[in-house]
Amino acid sequence: MNQLKNKNIKLLRKLFFSTLYLSALTFGGGYVIVTLMKKQFVDELHWIDEEEMLDLVAIAQSSPGAIAVNGAIVVGYKLAGIAGVLTAVLGTVIPPFLIIAAVSVCYQAFRSNQLVAWMLEGMQSGVGAVIASVTFEMASGIVKERNTISLLIMAAAFAASVIWQINTVYIILACGLLGILITFSKRRMKS
Predict the structure, then answer these.
(1) Would 188 be classed as within a structural domain?
(2) Which residues contact 53 (CB under 8 A, 6 or more apart)?
(3) Which residues cross the membrane (predicted)?
(4) pLDDT digits (tens, 9 = 90+) for 44-78
């Protein structure tokens, strides 16, 4: 019993520091952290697999709130239940909280500083590259499976957003509904 407790404490400690590290060193929003979460949780720690990562991203995007926090909730719950959720969320929210608190104190000095403005402009370029990388990696996972339905949904969602400029919320809701219908139909066919 004591050995199991020590193992859980080690897992929670590693989860806390992993999410703290990711959150502290990620600039550019939720889509940037997705790449780092994949690298950390799928490639290095092997806590989740590629398919679970795609599900995690879908849940994190479609749930209200920050993608980083929603992703931490999903990973934390999978690994250690409610204790994992609390640990992962705490590790995820501490860095932005401290950074925003520090920036708010020094806001007037930052606001007019040209060097800070140039640095933020440069970071925007890097963020664009990271988001493109995430999109490519996630799309290549779907293409590798050769799942025709997923490919059609992906193409339709892209066209709806880029060509017809449909609100992303409607696209996410439609894709979620399609996912539910496809899952139920597959389960019904197996029965």
Answers:
(1) no
(2) 37, 38, 41, 42
(3) 15-36, 84-110, 116-136, 170-185
(4) 888 888 878 877 777 777 777 778 888 888 889 98
